[in-house]
Specification:
It is a single chain. With about 400 residues, the protein is an alpha/beta fold. The protein has two domains: about 1-140 and about 280-355, Response regulator (Rossmann fold, 3-Layer(aba) Sandwich), CATH 3.40.50; about 145-275 and about 365-380, Rossmann fold, CATH 3.40.50. The protein contains 13 helices and 16 strands. The radius of gyration is 21 Å and the shape is globular.
Length: about 400
């Protein structure tokens, strides 16, 4: 709450800046997927930016805000590297939102360091990549341990001690696998099998058979938001594993609201660890959801990229307001962002003062159908803490 009050105080400071001082223009480069299997991520991101600027205006701290978008096309580091280079040279971006996906973020790190361009990461989760790769990164998405450790503890607590682990075969999947297996061992659970599924042209049926043969109490899935999450949850249901009583659990990406309707009733009962759900019970979230739907309609639904972008804009506006009356200084901006706290529609958020990573609540949710609509319903909270 103190962070929220602080944000209101900054907003008041912004309003007090005389019009004569409102000269500098801050250009924000938004590097997201606007095409391909994760195109909805880009749509959500831009929708959140438009709503934020409609609500809070296009001037902050005496500085005019402009943004432009560029399509990373998905996890494509060569494309992302080129787009970031163009954004900071040709387009003269002073701040970036993105790039999305871990490979893209890693490729961009040397460029933002050399150019001294702060970048708010709203769609990549691998741990050990934010403060370690560049001092100009801050993250509003999540760090892998935040989602991959709690459900191991939860599973064992509920006597689902024999677990089969399935992850996507890329850096975040490997990171999640390591974190989950460590937490499972600490909690006293047993790994009965684990596999890595390739990102390109995955075929799920053979993996489902391996799960059936292992006879676990539960399966834990980590898949990127989008096509793979849709496919793996459907395959789990269609293979009869759900009917056999095996519990479907996973990182909340697999039931992200943006793609939940595409999964359909196969997702019912899935238990996931997540950073946000549109059903989150807070005044600020209800206001956010109402305004978002009023502006953008009910499709695509609000997912994690939308809330991460919204909070990226909160960081940007608060950081610029803190420099009211002066010329934009990227180092002062990052010094403000690191350690900054505020109330998000997802709950209380702090950006770690040391590495720029996010500290937030993690919620255990169950997919239920409410008034005919599939929803992630939070029923347990792992309180905000730094996950190193």
């Amino acid at each position: 709450m103190r962070g929220f009050i602080r944000s209101l105080a900054i907003a008041a400071l912004v309003a007090a800046v005389p019009a004569s001082a409102q000269q500098e223009t801050i250009r924000i480069g938004v590097l997201q997927s606007f095409s391909g299997m994760t195109s909805l991520n880009g749509q959500q991101s831009e929708a959140a930016i438009k709503l934020f600027m409609k609500k809070y205006g296009d001037t902050v701290g005496g500085k005019k805000i402009e943004y432009f978008t560029r399509d990373t096309t998905g996890p494509n580091p060569e494309v992302a590297k080129r787009l970031v280079q163009e954004a900071v040279t040709r387009e003269r971006a002073q701040i970036l939102i993105g790039p999305d996906f871990t490979p893209n973020m890693l490729a961009a790190a040397p460029i933002v360091t050399e150019a001294k361009v702060p970048a708010i990461i709203n769609g990549a989760a691998t741990s050990g990549t934010i403060g370690e790769r560049t001092p100009y990164y801050a993250r509003t998405f999540f760090a892998i341990p935040q989602l991959c450790r709690p459900l191991a503890t939860y599973a064992v607590k509920n006597n689902w001690k024999r677990v089969f682990v399935v992850v996507a075969d890329f850096a975040p999947g490997h990171d999640c696998e390591k974190q989950y297996l460590g937490a499972l061992a600490e909690a006293g659970g047993t790994l009965v099998g684990n596999v890595r599924i390739p990102l390109k042209n995955p075929e799920f049926s053979s993996y489902m058979q391996r799960i059936r043969d292992a006879k676990p109490d539960a399966v834990y899935f980590f898949m990127p938001i989008g096509e793979m999450s849709i496919g793996v949850v459907r395959a789990f249901n269609e293979s009869g594993l759900k009917a056999a009583g095996i519990k479907l659990t996973g990182a909340g990406d697999i039931t992200d609201e943006t793609y939940l309707d595409a999964i359909g009733d196969a997702a019912l009962g899935a238990i996931t660890a997540g950073i946000y759900s549109t059903t989150h019970d807070s005044k600020i979230n209800k206001e956010f959801v109402s305004e978002y739907v009023a502006m953008n309609g009910k499709s695509p639904r609000i997912g994690w990229v939308a809330i991460s972008t919204w909070d990226a804009m909160r960081l940007i506006y608060d950081g610029l307001a803190a420099q009211a009356g002066g010329k934009f200084d990227p180092d002062k901006f990052m010094a403000f962002v690191k350690g900054h706290s505020f109330e998000s529609p997802r709950g209380p958020v702090t950006i770690d003062k040391g590495n720029g990573d996010i500290v937030q609540n993690v919620y255990i949710r169950r997919v239920e159908k409410i008034n005919g609509v599939l929803q992630n319903v939070e029923f347990e909270t792992f309180k905000a803490q730094p996950f190193k």
